[in-house]
């Protein structure tokens, strides 16, 4: 079963995107096309299909408008915006396959890695736990709960459009508004903290991961891979035991 790759690209990731793509093409097994959702419609990257952010029904200004009501906060606008781009990509990109693998642009697969095994979506788990993510989930809908002691956050996620649509339908019926707007309105961290605090109040990966595990467990394969968040200057060429690493700008030694 083939899948497509979707990579959201912001200005901070642009300098390293070609290196990222080198590792992606070499080590991601079973993909068809690579789509890059780009902040700048004039950018062209060879071998990739470029998708403008302007293709989406919501804009960065819409995100800002929601959060301006709460202390005038704007320091996480693009972070929440990118989460929504990932969830909506399957409904915006023309001719994209039903399964698509979102890969954060700071992630580097160091070993060959499969994502559909025995016709099951394969999720790589992590150890992160952030209570606000699950508070946000439950506010989207009371049935959205944490269902496994591991985290679904590992800088990538194999999405299935059918299950994303189920999530959208549940939330939109419950809140009587588009999913993207409910997603933003239910972020409590912007309401509770001043403009100077850089908080994390939602996770698209945790929402989808826990929903699928709870409602479609027979379609999921969960695995443990060796991975870690590393500083941006980590040497990818060293003889590493990691299956993948994320080179995070916020990470320090």
Could you give a quick summary of the protein structure above?
It contains eight helices and eleven strands.
Give a verbal description of the structure.
This protein is an alpha/beta fold. It has a single domain, classed as Alpha-Beta Complex (Spore Coat Polysaccharide Biosynthesis Protein SpsA, Chain A), CATH 3.90.550. Helix content is 33%, strand content 21%. The chain has helices spanning 17-27, 60-67, 77-92, 131-140, 161-175, 179-185, 189-192, 204-215; strands spanning 3-9, 31-38, 49-52, 99-103, 107-109, 116-117, 120-124, 156-160, 220-223, 227-231, 244-248. The strands form three sheets. It has a five-stranded mixed β-sheet. A hairpin with a 2-residue loop joins strand 6 (116-117) and strand 7. Helix 2 crosses helix 3 (77-92). It is globular and about 45 Å long. The N and C termini lie far apart (40 Å). The relative contact order is 0.17. The model has no long low-confidence stretch (mean pLDDT 92).
In DSSP terms, counting alpha (H) and pi (I) runs of 4 or more, how many helices?
Answer: 8
Q: Main beta sheet, described?
A: 5 strands, mixed
Fill in the CATH topology: Spore Coat Polysaccharide Biosynthesis Protein SpsA, Chain A
Trace the largest sheet across and list its strands: 3-2-1-4-8
Which percent range describes the beta-strand content? 15-25%
The number of distinct structural domains comes to 1
The structural class is alpha/beta
* CATH top level class name: Alpha Beta
- Rg: 18 Å
Number of strands: 11
> What is the helix content?
25-40%
- SSE string, helices as H and strands as E: EHEEHHEEEEHEHHHHEEE
Query: What would you call the shape?
Result: globular
- N→C terminal distance: 40 Å
Query: Would you identify the CATH architecture?
Result: Alpha-Beta Complex
Low-pLDDT runs of 5+ residues are none
């Amino acid at each position: 079963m083939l899948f497509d790759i979707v990579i959201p690209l912001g200005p901070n990731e642009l300098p390293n995107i070609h290196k990222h793509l080198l590792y992606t093409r070499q080590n991601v097994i079973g993909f068809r096309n690579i789509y890059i959702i780009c902040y700048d419609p004039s950018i062209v990257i060879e071998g990739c299909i470029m998708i403008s952010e302007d293709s989406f029904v919501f804009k960065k200004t819409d995100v800002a408008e929601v959060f301006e009501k709460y202390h005038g906060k704007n320091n996480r606008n693009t972070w929440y915006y990118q989460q929504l781009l990932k969830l909506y990509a399957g409904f915006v990109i023309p001719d994209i396959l039903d399964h698509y693998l979102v890969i954060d642009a700071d992630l580097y697969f160091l070993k060959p890695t499969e994502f559909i095994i025995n016709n099951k979506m394969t999720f790589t788990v992590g150890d992160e736990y952030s209570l606000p993510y699950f508070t946000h989930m439950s506010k989207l809908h009371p049935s959205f709960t944490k269902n496994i002691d591991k985290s679904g956050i590992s800088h990538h996620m194999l999405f299935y459009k059918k299950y994303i649509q189920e999530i959208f339908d549940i939330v939109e019926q419950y809140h009587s508004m588009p999913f993207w707007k409910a997603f933003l309105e239910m972020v409590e961290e912007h309401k509770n903290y001043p403009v100077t605090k850089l908080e994390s109040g939602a996770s698209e990966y945790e929402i989808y991961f826990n929903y699928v595990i709870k409602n479609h467990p027979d379609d999921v394969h969960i695995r443990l891979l060796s991975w870690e968040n590393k500083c941006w200057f980590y040497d990818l060429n060293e003889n590493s035991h990691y299956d993948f690493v994320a080179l995070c700008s916020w990470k320090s030694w």
